[in-house]
Amino acid sequence: MVNPALSKHHFFISLPSNLHYHLETLRFFSNILLQTVRVPKLLDGAKYCRKVQVSAQGATTSQTGDSSNLSFSEHINSIMVKAKFRSNHIIRCFLSKDCNLLTQAFITHVQPLLEYCSPVWSPSYVTLINKIESVQRFFTKRLNGLQSISYDDRLAMLGLERLELRRLTFDLLMCYKIIYRVKSCQYQ
Hints:
This protein is an all-alpha fold. The chain has two domains: 4-57, no CATH class; 73-179, no CATH class. Helices cover 62% and strands 0% of the residues. It is built from eleven helices and no strands. It is flat, with a radius of gyration of 22 Å. It starts with a helix and ends in a 9-residue tail after the last helix. 11% of the residues are buried.
């Protein structure tokens, strides 16, 4: 049985046909248990569509507000949340507390998230640069025996570079590829 309030929502993307049924069942049982679940907020078509577009494309700007300034702060905030989530799980889920193993897991699972398409969205504001760097700073500070050491010394001990320096390297590589026509760019 579908709630009439939900049937008036228009969705911009295709959802599984049984999703409404399961959400209604969840709301029914949550009412029995005297707990509320905000299904209409979850099913707001515009918000859901916007989230899908942001996560599917990697680097995109917001669909609402002034998009003429080409600010990627919303994208940076979303990848920061994902990267902190992954780095926390690396620290908590590995039984071994070996710094080299955890650093390798960070390089494999978190750094690609922070560096994907970075020549497109690389920040120029110090606050955004520090926000991105805080993920690696937070991770390295939580490793055993490295809590009281400065950030630059921790990076040297682990064989890592600052994320800002890595993004600058990627920017320079992209410039080289464009100038020497290794990478073609269509200008229109």
